[in-house]
Amino acid sequence: MSVFNGENWLKSSVESILSQTFRDFEFIIVDDGSTDSSIDILNFYESRDERIRIIRKKNTGLADSLNIGINSAKSEWIARIDCDDKSDLSRLEKQYLLALNIGKDFFIGSNYFSINQNDTIISKYKCPESHYKLKTNLLNFNKFFPHSSAFFSLSAFQKLGGYRTHYERSQDYDL
Known about the structure:
By secondary structure, the chain is an alpha/beta fold. 35% of the residues lie in helices and 18% in strands. It has 7 helices and 8 strands, in the order βαβαβαβαβββαβαα. It has a 3-stranded parallel β-sheet, with helices on both faces. Strand 2 (27-32), helix 2 (38-48) and strand 3 (52-57) form a beta-alpha-beta unit. The longest helix has 12 residues, at 91-102. It is globular, with a radius of gyration of 16 Å.
């Protein structure tokens, strides 16, 4: 996770990861020079859960922050989450088990719900499941799984060269 001034949704996002049914993970959170209370929120959670590792740095943008966090991971498996998103409580377990069955040269994602501040579902989005349809959609900037649901291997990420930092937006599509 990368955070830049994410105090409004950060607690909810962090708790959705700490409450996962799959419990054996390292939660790397890169604070990208936040000037709000984000670092205080992160310090609170880090003091209570040994799975959290915070990396503080000056503000250099999302792509750079993600590269730093991902490249410092001790695991082969990477699960992305944005600081203003929440994950289903069985997300990591389901994605990890699927990853073990299909290998390392892939990206896994998920469908998603759009919710309001009361956690009420506003809309549901179903993404394509086939590799061909996902690839076609990606190339045409059509519906694709949200990058904050991405699950992939560190080796695949590094083979691709990571996120290109000259992109301020759409680094997920580029990757």
